[in-house]
UniProtKB/TrEMBL annotation:
Name of this protein: DAGKc domain-containing protein
Organism whose genome encodes this protein: Skeletonema marinoi
One Gene Ontology biological process: sphingosine biosynthetic process
PANTHER family: ACYLGLYCEROL KINASE, MITOCHONDRIAL, SPHINGOSINE KINASE
Recorded superkingdom: Eukaryota
Gene Ontology, cellular component aspect: cytoplasm; membrane
Annotated GO MF terms: lipid kinase activity; phosphotransferase activity, alcohol group as acceptor
Domain DAGKc: 181-301
UniProt-listed InterPro entries: ATP-NAD_kinase_N (IPR017438), Diacylglycerol_kinase_cat_dom (IPR001206), Lipid_Phosphate_FormReg (IPR050187), NAD/diacylglycerol_kinase_sf (IPR016064)
């Protein structure tokens, strides 16, 4: 049987558009653990062409009605015999760092569907970094699948599918803080002169942050603040900074000027710290955390 976290009912109703008259569906391969894009069979394609939305895709259907749906039955049959599937595309959940649904609305399209505005574009985005065995490193190989909006009245099926992909990828709790369900937030501390040739160097920390780290954090749905150090010991000072009270903020507002969250927030408000630079910046961070821990231990004693 398929993985219990895979929403077979929802997946059976979602059509991925390949060309104007060619569609696929997403299947979970229980043997390999991969998620495969498989063409619709000729019978399924014919059924989709001739059937009405209400008969096949109405979310008010009872479970018994859904189970009798020929498309659903065909989907289950293909799932059980996945060794014979024709695979158009594939990805493994272990390589996924993020997944989302992007929608573009077309409010001026006269071809409305069940009274709802038409969608100009509905796309499933999967952010994958599979391992390149030859180079022994991970490289981006992202997936973007265009959803046929006529099969999704409110996109609840698509969202269920994306949530399943996130769950299979171990991402269900990665973008929230376990204590208060707020989004995770990281602090990135970088030395702009690391890597040589200054902040504009294409081998420096700033370039790596802009081209690799920042996009990956956004793809993973992780919020972050960035602090670029501007003098020796800056990272250590940042680690030692304590959380300010509202009175402190009022009294020091003029002095702090245009300081950002990356300069003012107590580090206890972050779920992780990313250090970008040489050994020096990492040493400063550890120094600041150690000094902070020592001071707090003395106060508590």
């Amino acid at each position: 049987a398929n993985n219990p976290t895979w929403p077979a009912t929802a997946a059976s109703r979602i059509r991925i558009k390949i060309t104007n008259d060619s569609y696929c569906r997403l299947f979970y391969n229980h043997s390999t653990g991969s998620i495969n894009l498989v063409p619709l069979t000729a019978d399924d394609a014919s059924a989709i062409t001739t059937a009405s939305h209400a008969e096949i895709y109405d979310h008010s259907q009872t479970s018994a009605t859904v189970e009798q749906d020929p498309l659903y039955q065909s989907y289950l049959s293909q799932s059980k015999d996945d060794s014979n599937q024709i695979i158009v595309d594939s990805f493994h959940p272990d390589d996924v760092i993020g997944a989302n649904l992007s929608l573009e609305y077309n409010l001026h399209n006269p071809n409305t569907f069940h009274g709802m505005q038409s969608y100009a574009s509905a796309q499933i985005n999967i952010y994958c970094y599979p391992k390149n065995n030859r180079k022994k490193q991970r490289e981006p190989n992202h997936k973007s699948y265009i959803v046929d909006s006529k099969c999704c009245e409110d996109f609840s099926d698509v969202r269920a599918l994306i949530q399943s992909i996130r769950t299979l990828s171990g991402l269900q709790n990665n973008n929230t803080n376990n204590n208060n369900a707020l989004p995770q937030r990281f602090l990135v501390i970088l030395n702009p002169y690391s890597g040589g040739n200054g902040p504009k160097s294409k081998s420096g920390a700033t370039f790596v942050y802009e081209t690799m780290v920042k996009p990956m954090l956004e793809q993973a749905g992780v919020e972050h603040d960035k602090l670029a150090t501007n003098h020796g010991g800056h990272a250590k000072e940042r680690m030692e900074l304590r959380k300010s009270t509202s009175d402190d903020n009022d009294n020091n507002g003029e002095e702090r000027g245009d300081c950002t969250d990356s300069e003012l927030k107590d580090i206890s408000e972050y779920d992780a710290i990313i250090a970008m630079g040489g050994d020096g910046i990492l040493f400063e961070i550890f120094q600041g955390i150690h000094a902070r821990s020592t001071d707090e231990a003395q106060i508590l004693s």
